Design the sequence.
């Protein structure tokens, strides 16, 4: 048996994608819509407080294309809290006007492919990567992925040393995008249908295409990467929620 990579886990993560039932939303009078938006904005305000205390983080993005209308990304120290927040959102009146489109459950993950000589429990940089405050950058890209297990192309049969070499090359490509793309890798083996969730943030949406395309030529992705659906979206700050929902 090959040696498994050792992983460090941080905050648990829920990506919740919703479509808005615009036809029903439109039927409400504007006063009711205002009330419902107010309730939703209060919920966001509570999440902001949690974020200020570094007890979790969240991001709200408007999704482009028909797969969903918006995405809520939530990070919390426990899976239980994610479940509570999901239920709390589902009980809001606003949720009645949304239709679940997709969701993804995972936990922020770092692996030991690149050697680190620091104690992960003490090192502030590692801790900040395990418990990230989500950057409120203009664009988000999310997709789930697997490492292939198919005949001779089986990632999980490769010796640790070989995987380490391959991951080094992967990391080198990634590093060229420092400051342009921020990535959060979350592990989902045992939690959801794919092995990882990939969440990318950028100021310039084209950088997603450039990074993902460049990685396709790197062996880790070219030979071993398998991908689910891609979602791309734009930041929905609180002050834009009202205009987003305005009819
Ligand atoms: O954590 C680190 O920065 C160390 C190097 C590194 C690891 C271990 C790294 C760097 N990644 C790692 C692990 Mn990554 N990453 C992806 C995708 O679309 C594709 O082809 C793949 C999706 C992107 C775009 C990306 C970006 N990475 C992983 C893992 C876990 C693998 C495992 O354990 O087997 C996956 C699934 C994955 C996928 N990677 C980087 C990036 C970028 C931008 C970097 C540089 C980060 C930086 O230096 O700040």
Sequence:
């Amino acid at each position: 048996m090959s040696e498994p990579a050792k992983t460090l886990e941080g905050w648990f993560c829920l990506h919740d994608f919703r479509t808005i039932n615009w036809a029903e939303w439109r039927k409400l009078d504007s006063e009711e819509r205002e009330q419902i938006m107010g309730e939703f904005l209060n919920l966001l305000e509570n999440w902001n407080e949690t974020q200020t205390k570094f007890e979790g983080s969240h991001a709200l993005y408007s999704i482009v294309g028909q797969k969903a209308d918006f995405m809520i990304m939530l990070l919390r120290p426990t899976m239980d809290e994610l479940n509570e927040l999901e239920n709390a959102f589902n009980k809001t009146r606003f949720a009645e006007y949304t239709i679940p489109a997709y969701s993804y459950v995972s936990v922020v993950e770092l692996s030991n492919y690149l050697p680190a000589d620091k104690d992960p429990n003490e090192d502030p940089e590692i801790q900040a990567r395990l418990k990230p405050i989500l950057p409120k950058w203009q664009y988000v890209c999310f997709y789930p992925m697997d490492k292939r297990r198919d005949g001779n192309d089986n990632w999980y049969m490769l010796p640790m040393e070989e995987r380490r070499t391959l991951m080094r090359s992967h990391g080198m490509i990634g590093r060229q995008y420092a400051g342009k793309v921020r990535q959060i890798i979350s592990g989902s083996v045992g939690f959801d249908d794919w092995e990882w969730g990939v969440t990318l943030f950028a100021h310039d949406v084209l950088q997603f295409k450039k990074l993902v395309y460049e990685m396709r030529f790197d062996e880790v992705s070219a030979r071993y990467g398998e991908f689910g659906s891609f979602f791309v979206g734009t930041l929905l700050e609180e002050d834009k929620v009202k205009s987003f929902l305005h009819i």
